[in-house]
């Protein structure tokens, strides 16, 4: 469960958006947000990925959570000197750093553990339909807003999140009814409107007839489990996720095949 940063009524908008940014000049770095992270008209932070850092423009009275604990630069108005305008804490249970502004906005430049090409920034503004992020706390670089993630990994609400993938990230846009097969480990996130199910490709690996006959004769009660283990040994790389549009899918390109083992339930679903 993500902490609810804004516990108040907010105008609901229909969808989420993603964007990417180029270089940032000194004037961009010095210009701070004018709004506030509280009240009926909330202004969200702004995340700008750089080559090896991320620039976070935080409005006043706002909190940002993330796997970022190294602040390399902070901008503040000279009138703020001597006043508390930024607080930093750690949520040890989730391994997250917490940065909070007071009465004044602040720009924070924080070191990132992953390069620019491995980051995608998503804005969400929908409380009914969100985006599935299977490993949210492992793959979110930073986030802020009135966000909630359920047990299935669907993130909803009004907020902003920067995801850090394993290798460069690509956005696949599926048309209505369009289907694609992708490795489960390559999926970083996908639109909640996208249908996702496991499917097994035909394989040349089968249990040899002699092994089959031996199990039937000598160990029939263990046969089903043996078939599952055989499938894991030879066919795990033959199981893919079938994605059907419409919607967007974000794929990470540097993944390890087989790093997410399949359960017996997964294998059963894939064989249907």
From TrEMBL:
A matching Pfam family: AIM24
Keywords: Mitochondrion
Record GO cellular component, one term: mitochondrion
Domain of life, per lineage: Eukaryota
Presence of keyword Magnesium: no
Places the protein is found: Mitochondrion
SUPFAM superfamilies in alphabetical order: TRAP-like (SSF51219)
Family membership noted in the UniProt record: Belongs to the AIM24 family.
Protein name as catalogued: Altered inheritance of mitochondria protein 24, mitochondrial
Species for this entry: Zygosaccharomyces rouxii
């Amino acid at each position: 469960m993500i902490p609810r940063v804004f516990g108040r009524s907010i105008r609901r908008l229909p969808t989420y958006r993603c964007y990417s940014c180029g270089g940032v000049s000194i004037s961009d770095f010095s210009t701070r947000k004018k709004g506030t992270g509280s009240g009926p008209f909330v202004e969200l932070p702004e995340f700008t990925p750089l080559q090896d850092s991320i620039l976070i423009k935080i409005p006043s009275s706002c909190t940002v959570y993330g796997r970022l604990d190294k602040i390399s630069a902070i901008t503040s108005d000279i009138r703020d000197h001597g006043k508390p305008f930024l607080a930093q804490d750690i949520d040890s249970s989730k391994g997250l750093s917490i940065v909070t502004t007071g009465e004044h906005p602040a720009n924070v430049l924080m070191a990132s553990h992953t390069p620019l090409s491995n980051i995608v920034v998503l804005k969400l503004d929908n409380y009914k339909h969100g985006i599935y992020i299977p490993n949210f706390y492992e793959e979110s670089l930073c986030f802020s807003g009135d966000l909630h993630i359920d047990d299935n990994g669907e993130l909803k609400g009004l907020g902003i999140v920067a995801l850090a993938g394993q290798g460069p990230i690509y956005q696949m846009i599926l048309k209505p009814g369009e289907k694609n097969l992708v490795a489960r480990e390559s999926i970083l996130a996908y639109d909640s409107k996208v249908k996702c199910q496991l499917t097994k490709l035909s394989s040349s690996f089968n249990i040899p007839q002699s092994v089959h006959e031996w199990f039937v004769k000598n160990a029939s009660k263990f046969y089903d489990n043996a078939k599952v283990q055989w499938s894991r040994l030879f066919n795990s790389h033959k199981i893919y996720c079938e994605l059907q549009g419409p919607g967007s899918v974000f794929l990470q390109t540097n993944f390890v095949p087989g790093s997410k083992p399949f359960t017996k339930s997964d294998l059963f679903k894939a064989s249907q």
